[in-house]
Amino acid sequence: MKFFIPGGAGYIGTHIAFMLIDEGHDVVILDNFSNSSISSFHALEKLVNKNITLYKGNICDDKILSQIFIDHNFEAVIHLAALKSVSESFLNPKDYFRNNFEGTLCLLNAMETSNLKNIIFSSSATIYGIPKYLPIDENHPLSSINPYAETKLRIEKALNDLAKNDDTWKIVSLRYFNPVGAHESGMIGENPRDIPNNIMPYIVNVANKELPYINIFGKNYETNDGTGVRDYIHVMDLAESHLLALNFLGIKAVNHKISVLDNSGFHAFNIGTGKGCSVLELINIFQAVNDIEVPYKFASRREGDVASCYANVDMFNSTFKWNTKRTIEEMCSSAWNFKTKKNEQKK
């Protein structure tokens, strides 16, 4: 089977693409490389030992989308294409609404023209806003406290409305918590182009002495050690959840039985481990498993940050008869392994 992955050359996309190809499927990737690099794409090709069809372009480009759907017959779309920096979204909100929201509408129009109505959407736990209770389940009230989250929230609403209006659509929205780590080979992983926005590549760059220390924003939250608590999930577990979601839509992407098949309509699931880990705990675990020092300093809280955010994953686990497999230690060791492999390549 063949799958279309807009945004597939990025961090999460390369791991999903690897897993699909490893299961014997074909993928086609569209990426404008605003959040990724061509080196990550080539590393993916080397890892799977085959050429992958790549279109360089923007999801807002109707012409390139039309051409892709003319050139290929897909079973489903795994939609990852998005600008994703919370801080940047405050500075350039119009760019975020244009790329993320309007780009999704362009994609949906192209899919409908091609009579393809199966889509997995990459959503975010940021749409829950400030948690009203923990752990956060799928029935938690939705709200946005930044433009990035607002784009994800609007897309989910559009997808839900679309499915209500036309019951031939099959849509799964996966609400990611905090993906970290890398493929065990060390060939693909999180490789931001600029100063990292996410915590793990920041920790890795400090450990690699590219940065002098990591700032921990806030030390007086009402948590065990005063630092923010998040739900970190290994990117390979996250990638696997997409294949299970395809099974849920009646498309057998992986040999795994789930409780309900061939689901039409709109369905949302949390993707996390259900376990909280503080920033300080994460740094300490990283130092211990990799036997390396990560200097840090405390800084003031950032606007919009919450004390704790972790998932209730009962719905996903029971529906898909599946649990995450990889530990926080494996997340830390695989992230550092990816960095050390990149260091070796530079020599």
Polypeptide structure, described:
- The chain is of the alpha/beta class and 347 residues long.
- The chain is built from 11 helices and 14 strands.
- The strands form 4 sheets. A 7-stranded parallel beta sheet has the order 3-2-1-4-5-6-11, with helices on both faces. A 3-stranded mixed beta sheet has the order 12-9-14. A two-stranded parallel sheet has the order 7-10.
- The longest helix is centred in the N-terminal third of the chain and has 21 residues.
- It is globular and about 55 Å long.
- The mean pLDDT is 95.
Short description:
The protein has 347 residues and is of the alpha/beta class. It contains eleven helices and 14 strands. The chain folds into two domains: 2-180 and 232-271, Rossmann fold (3-Layer(aba) Sandwich); 199-229 and 274-346, UDP-galactose 4-epimerase, domain 1.
Superfamily (CATH H level) name of the largest domain: NAD(P)-binding Rossmann-like Domain
Percentage of residues assigned to helices: 40-55%
Shape: globular
- Give the strand order of the largest sheet, numbering strands 1, 2, ... along the chain: 3-2-1-4-5-6-11
Specify the biggest β-sheet. Answer: 7 strands, parallel
- Number of beta strands: 14
Count the DSSP helices. Answer: 11
End-to-end separation: 39 Å
CATH class of the largest domain: Alpha Beta
Topology:
Blueprint lengths: L1 E5 L4 H12 L3 E6 L6 H11 L4 E4 L5 H10 L4 E4 L6 H6 L1 H21 L4 E7 L22 H19 L4 E7 L1 E3 L18 H9 L6 E4 L11 E2 L1 E3 H14 L16 E7 L5 E2 H12 L5 E4 L8 E2 L4 H7 L7 H19 L1
Parallel strand pairs: 1-2, 1-4, 2-3, 4-5, 5-6, 6-11, 7-10, 8-13, 9-14
Antiparallel strand pairs: 9-12
Helix pairs in contact: 1-2, 1-8, 3-5, 5-6, 7-11, 9-11
